[in-house]
Known about the structure:
Blueprint: E1 15-19, H1 23-35, E2 39-43, H2 46-54, E3 61-65, H3 73-82, E4 90-95, H4 100-104, E5 111-114, H5 120-140
Parallel strand pairs: 1-2, 1-3, 3-4, 4-5
Helix pairs in contact: 2-3
Amino acid sequence: MPEENTEQNKEGKTSIFIIDDDKFLLDMYSLKFRNAGLGVEVAFSSAEAMKRLKEGFAPHIILLDIIMPGMDGIELLKTIRTEKLSPQSTIILLTNQADDADKVQTLGIDGFIIKAMNVPSEVVRQVLDIYKKRNKSTNNHE
């Protein structure tokens, strides 16, 4: 079972796990986050992501699409929370569905970004801002 420290990955970088069924978006966001200095892992489906998380992968950030075939992002999020998979991870939903924001607020997400309203570099900035803000508030309450 792989060991993944949520403080640093092997390269000492903040790690992000991007889960989306759109290969073009996965490739583009992977490049953008790598260029921002993050370690990037990807999954093309909720099932693939679930397998990795159950094996012990614990990224700093999980960036999760909502609309995916099979298990959608909301079901994956519920499972992550119920089974306490990667509990220290900052979880951010990335979707084109603006009306999903209200549905997911009760699921304990750290952020919500609408793809269509943000260019990729803005998504990277927002993700990093959400991550830093969550870590600052978590560290202040320990």
